Amino acid sequence: MKITHLTQAFCWLLLPVISLSANAQNLSDAMKNGLQTMASEQLNADLDVEELEVNSLTDGLTANNVRFATRVDALSEPENQLLLAKQLVLTGDWQALGSSRVDISKVSMSGAQLTVAYYGTGRSNLHEFLKQMNSVKVQKVSSVPLNWRVDEWLMEDVTINLFDKGEPILSVHVRELELTELQSMQSADAQVKELLWPILEQVAEQVRDGNPNLQVDSMALSRFLLREAMAF
Question: Rounded CA gap, 89 and 59, in Å?
Fold first, then answer.
């Protein structure tokens, strides 16, 4: 009888913990489904996440084994595969997805592959993704635009590939790369510039250092940079 009473008491003590764990799991599942639906319906893209964990106490969202692919008809399936990441972590006010403003203090990714594929001047899978992001509405049926901002981007152990009209012109591995703030008030062209410029600086540094693992078609890259620079 004593054992029965002790067992019952122990179960009562665990109930809040079990409830909290269940709520956290429900929130994680709801967030995963919501993000995948948003990607498909508002970003015209495909998002696959093997595991997603939400920590409402720290405002942290961790996604493992992430695949994000655009749906640009002019690009092949591998070129549309914008991002692969073993882990992607968001911290900030991401839970305000139902409001008109979302502030992300930090996005960090590790073990990732970023593929930027151009199919014309000022046209790429990255441009398409950012244009779609800038046109996201607070709710699908609402005309109110979503204002978003990311204060800091940190990439660790990332391979970056650059294609131009189907031709690979750059592949570089970056141990660590910190990017500047992005926000919906910028145009997609300005956002792409903010993202690509630090990467090209890394390429120049690795060329100077004679990195044997750097793969770059210097002539094609020069033509690409000249074409994009003259267009704006």
Answer: 10
Task: Tell me the average pLDDT across 179-186.
Answer: 81
Handedness of CA 29, 179, 225, 121 (dihedral sign): positive
DSSP string of 84-145? EEEEEEEEESTT-TTSSEEEEEEEEEEEEEEEEEEEETTEEHHHHHHHHHHT-BSSTT--PB
**CB under 8 Å to 129, separation ≥6 — which residues?**
43, 45, 68, 70, 82
Cα(154)–Cα(150) distance, rounded to whole angstroms?
11
Percent of the chain with pLDDT over 90: 36
Contact at 8 Å (CB) between 163 and 118? yes
Between CA 192 and CA 121 the distance in angstroms is: 13
